Amino acid sequence: MHVKELLSLKDKIVLITGGEGKYGKCITKGLAEADATVITASPFLDDGEKVAAGFRSKGLAVEAMYVDQADHDSVVKLKQAAISVTTGSTKFNFTQVAISPARIFFKTLLGRI
């Protein structure tokens, strides 16, 4: 078995906060190249969409979404939007690139509100 098959993220959904930033772009690229569907979320939607569009032009599955991690309603909307984009799947892997109020953010996304 090839290493790419062993480490494949095919059929996995990864939500990254800060995926449009300096380090986040590298993480987004690596996960997408491993066949994950990557959702990058941040308050800088324009920047996120530019990054996502660049990756999509290379055949990678990357979407950009808005989130303000300090705003509970924003996090709830992100969760709902992510589920709708990923055909109803509620199985996500979370990677946080930016420093933020992570406890509230993850509690909301994981449904432990």
Automatic annotation (TrEMBL):
Gene3D superfamilies the record matches: NAD(P)-binding Rossmann-like Domain
The protein's name: Uncharacterized protein
Organism the protein comes from: marine sediment metagenome
